[in-house]
Design brief:
Blueprint: H1 3-95, H2 99-113, E1 118-123, H3 125-130, H4 135-145, E2 149-152, E3 162-167, E4 170-175, H5 176-182, H6 184-196
Parallel strand pairs: 1-2
Antiparallel strand pairs: 1-3, 3-4
Helix pairs in contact: 1-6, 2-4
Amino acid sequence: MSGLDKMKARILEEAQQSAAEILEKAQKDSEAALASAREAADVRAAEIEKRAEREAAEYEKRAEASMDMRRKQAYLEAKQEAIHCVIQTAYEKVLNLDSEAYFVLLEKILEKYILPGEGVICFAKRDLDRMPEGFSGKVKTAAAVKGGSLVLSPEPAELDGGFLLIYGGIEENCGIKAIFDSMKEELSDQVNRMLFG
């Protein structure tokens, strides 16, 4: 082999050795980059997983709070419905009391709301129709005791039960429904205590 061939062979050998070293270094660098990328991906995946777990826990808490609020709201609505039903039943029972008990109640209402002065009393149609004999005399006596007088109107008031007191154009609604409505909060509180402690 000539000197030139030896030189070529040597250069070729050095080039191959250099290429092998470059390839080996590139292989090591790519493996290191891949390992680093895997490590970074694992760290990122762990962060994402932790965040997802936190968000899931927060969502679960919100869902529980929402369910709890709905449960409380449904319970409150059921309580209010029960209270309303009891008050409505009481109202209907008052309207349907036997005549004697009913007019004793109306007499008590009259004594509470009657004013001194001249006025007119208008009963509901159903009360006019079933008014016991002598009740109009009790009305006049109650008015006289307060220093006034009441005239019984032959025209019925548009009420389910009870009466209107009219003094100088000013009406006082003493209908059973109006009395129940005016005492709604107080009655609700009493029924609530009775039913739910």
